[in-house]
């Protein structure tokens, strides 16, 4: 398979009926290295760029593959992620705003 065929299907875990998004991995970033050398943190950045409305910040998501939470410092090769694999995006909870009780004058 050529490098230009390297793509992943991305699925938002909290939207099971939504269609998968196809993420084409750019080959120029790694030069002579295989695309499996991409880090999970870089993959999160690519996903946030593609799904800006759903994923505004790569720090606010976890990636899941074959039931395993992917660690940012590992690579696609480490987890055995191949072209055409589906990676699930799990949005982390947004922090609750601090609520102060109303004071009466």
From TrEMBL:
<dbReference type="InterPro" id="IPR015496">
    <property type="entry name" value="Ubiquilin"/>
</dbReference>
<dbReference type="InterPro" id="IPR029071">
    <property type="entry name" value="Ubiquitin-like_domsf"/>
</dbReference>
<feature type="domain" description="Ubiquitin-like">
    <location>
        <begin position="39"/>
        <end position="92"/>
    </location>
</feature>
<dbReference type="GO" id="GO:0031593">
    <property type="term" value="F:polyubiquitin modification-dependent protein binding"/>
</dbReference>
<dbReference type="GO" id="GO:0005829">
    <property type="term" value="C:cytosol"/>
</dbReference>
<dbReference type="InterPro" id="IPR000626">
    <property type="entry name" value="Ubiquitin-like_dom"/>
</dbReference>
<dbReference type="Pfam" id="PF00240">
    <property type="entry name" value="ubiquitin"/>
</dbReference>
<dbReference type="InterPro" id="IPR047877">
    <property type="entry name" value="UBL7_Ubl"/>
</dbReference>
<dbReference type="GO" id="GO:0006511">
    <property type="term" value="P:ubiquitin-dependent protein catabolic process"/>
</dbReference>
<protein>
    <submittedName>
        <fullName>Ubiquitin like 7</fullName>
    </submittedName>
</protein>
